[in-house]
Amino acid sequence: MNKENDIFILGIESSCDDTSAAVIRNGVLLSNVIAGQKVHEAYGGVVPELASRAHQQNIVPVVDQAIKQAGITNRDITAVAFTRGPGLLGSLLVGTSFAKGFSLSTGAPMIEINHLQAHVLAHFIQEENAPFDPPKFPFLCLLVSGGNSQIILVKDYLNMEVIGQTIDDAAGEAFDKCAKVMGLPYPGGPFVDKLAKEGNPDAFKFAKPRIPNFDYSFSGLKTSFLYFLRDQLKENENFIEERKADLCASLQKTIIDILLDKLIKAAKENRIREIAVAGGVSANSGLRNALIETAAKRHWKMHIPKFAFTTDNAAMIAISGYFKYQKGEFIGMDAVPFARMDIKA
After folding, report:
1. How far apart (Å, rounded) are the C-alpha atoms in residues 153 and 138?
2. pTM attached to this predicted model
3. Which phi and psi angles does 147 have, rounded to 5°?
4. β-strand 110-114 against 126-127: which pairing, if any?
5. First to last CA, the chain
6. What confidence tens digit (pLDDT) does each residue in 39-59 have?
7. CA distances from 314 to 14, 53, 160, 249 (A)
8. Ordered strands of the 159-165 beta sheet
9. Strands 126-127 and 28-35, bridge-based pairing
10. What is the tens place of the pLDDT at every residue in 189-232?
11. 3-state secondary structure of 315
12. Is domain 139-304 given the CATH code 3.30.420.40 in the classification?
């Protein structure tokens, strides 16, 4: 490997409960290491203090493995990219502090990354000996995760505009909270997806909000679901267990319908047929299938990321860092993380 003129970007992701490090060489992924945290399952959600402590334990071995798997040394790193926000402040502090220490010890400059932008740019991760067909600008990206539901107009790698977003809860939050009511483990989204395959998506009807423009709302759906279960349990205390698959299928269909309704509207009004999806909920098989069907019907060019790049990962941080490195966008030692950040920040 001729390293002399190569650009090696180390990416560090620690926004929530996954500690991840990745190395990209000239835009091509060499390694992507992720350490999850099982401790939160017992609490039905991420406990911020426990998350930050686990990041402290994981970050050194995760970075070490990422660099070793890439076949390089610390001194070969051209720049270190880290998630500055949005996310859990304690978790972000661990990644930010490590990036500063790494930068001081190696001389590699630091690059701040917006976690939401990185999810979108996951579509530009190249893997060795793998097909590569990224979206063409401009394109629309439906970003759906536990904390975000947005429609983003992507004009360039670092030029994005949110044209629609949730005014309350995110789609992933609706999945997880409704799953919790049904007694499913955390995170509930994957369990709902699995059970939905066995159920009837038209068995039950739940509320769909009427929100103007391209914005979303999922709080009304959660309330509708909760009240429906409450009423049914009065009649039959075993209702959830007996109809769990149908409940999951109907819930999933409702969430997907809400997401696609606004995406179709946005694509039509902006006259864009290059469509992408990103974020943890983009791993949902029902959503993927619905997007593929809609794309075929509406003649969209649909871009769906690999499962490995849907959830939080450092590969998306590293590729974002690569684009910012080319523009010379670095940040100094006074960088502090932010729990909230606009996608353009």
Report:
1. 7
2. 0.94
3. -115, -10
4. unpaired
5. 36
6. 666 666 677 778 889 889 999
7. 9, 19, 20, 32
8. 159-165, 149-156, 139-144, 274-278, 301-303
9. parallel
10. 999 999 999 999 999 999 898 899 999 999 999 999 999 999 99
11. helix
12. yes
Q: Which two tokens stand for residue 41?
A: 């399952």
Task: Characterise 27 by phi-psi region: left (phi > 0), alpha (psi -120 to 50), beta (else).
Answer: left
Q: How many CB atoms lie within 10 A of CB 147?
A: 18
The CATH architecture one would assign to domain 8-131+310-326 is: 2-Layer Sandwich (3.30)
Mean pLDDT score across all residues of the chain? 94
Neighbours of 311 (CB within 10 A): 22
Structure tokens given for 215: 């914005």
Over 106-169, what HEC string results?
A: HCCCEEEEEHHHHHHHHHHCEECCCCCCCCCCCEEEEEECCCCEEEEEEEECCEEEEEEEECCC
Closest CA to 300 of 308, 291, 309: 291
Domain ranges of the chain: 8-131+310-326, 139-304
